[in-house]
Write a structure and sequence with these properties.
single chain; Sc_DH/Rdtase_CS; seven-stranded parallel beta sheet; alpha/beta; 238 residues; globular; KR_dom; binds NADP nicotinamide-adenine-dinucleotide phosphate; NAD(P)-bd_dom_sf; Rossmann fold; SDR family oxidoreductase
């Protein structure tokens, strides 16, 4: 595990699921963590849980679809903990269905959260990372950013777009010592799209994904794993 003492991390969508697993792992490794979700009380309670296990964390109510909310998120990290070293852009939603039933509001909810929200976070975070002389940006993509499926127009578009965004961002900032990677999980046991955690033992867990994030932060500086796919090793047979 890397030693993240003195490092400051932001995890969007950190109140539950994959984001909470990553936030807890970062705090365990010594980082001060700012996590957010739209539901402020859930974000605060997740941060309190991390703090009760000895970590340093704060929870904020932030909607990544709102540029001003994202500005407040970055400012909170720099004001409260003195800077920013790690951004994990994890917040995301599902939204599925055939195109003639996929209403414009649903399209916008998926694209604005999974793609434009990540743009806002990176746009605001990069100057703060540069001030520290470098850092990490990890976006949480999906295998749906590589494989299409029926009913996936909005979600596939958001995650294919996110992968392209992340790769271009990596090229933009790598000479500033900002290391950018996209982690692309398969099915993870979370609340995603109305799922109930605990019902599918074959799925990945948030801790599995968190382990990959920590490994990226621990990786030697000369090489950069810029895209990591992680999938259940024994998925349910179709
Ligand atoms: N679970 C899977 O099988 C799977 C597979 C591949 C990739 N992923 C990706 O992993 C990421 C996390 O998903 P998850 O499975 O952990 O889902 P989850 O259990 O539903 O958690 C999603 C988190 O994102 C937050 N969130 C949603 N919209 C937000 C917004 N506009 N602003 C701020 N926070 C927001 C949620 O809190 P609020 O609702 O309170 O805002 C929650 O904290 C997503 O990007 C998803 O696409 C998931």
């Amino acid at each position: 595990m890397p030693n993240l003492d003195g490092k400051v991390a932001i995890v969007t969508g950190g109140s539950k699921g994959i984001g909470l697993g990553i936030a807890a792992a970062l705090a365990d490794a010594g980082a001060s963590v700012v996590l957010c979700s739209r539901d402020e009380s859930e974000a605060r309670s997740a941060a309190d849980d991390i703090a009760s296990n000895g970590g340093r964390a704060m929870g904020l109510g932030v909607d990544v679809r709102k540029h001003d909310d994202v500005k407040r998120l970055i400012t909170a990290a720099t004001d409260e903990f003195g800077g920013l070293d790690i951004l994990v852009a994890n917040a995301g939603v599902g939204g599925f269905g055939p195109i003639d039933e996929l209403e414009p509001d649903e399209w916008r909810r998926v694209i604005d959260t999974n793609l434009t929200g990540v743009y806002y976070c990176c746009h605001e975070a990069v100057p703060a990372l540069k001030k520290r002389g470098g850092g990490w940006i990890i976006t949480i993509g999906s295998l749906a950013g590589r494989n299409t499926f029926a009913g996936g127009t909005a979600y596939n578009a958001s995650k294919f777009g996110l992968l392209g965004f992340t790769e271009a961002l990596m090229l933009d900032v790598r000479h500033d010592d900002i290391r950018v990677s996209c982690v692309m999980p398969g099915s993870v046991d979370t609340h995603f799209d109305g799922s109930k955690p605990g019902s599918d033992s074959w799925k990945l867990t948030p801790d599995d994904v968190a382990k990959v994030v920590l490994q990226l932060l621990d990786h030697d500086a000369r090489s950069l794993p810029s895209k990591v796919e992680i999938r259940p090793s024994r998925p349910k047979k179709r």
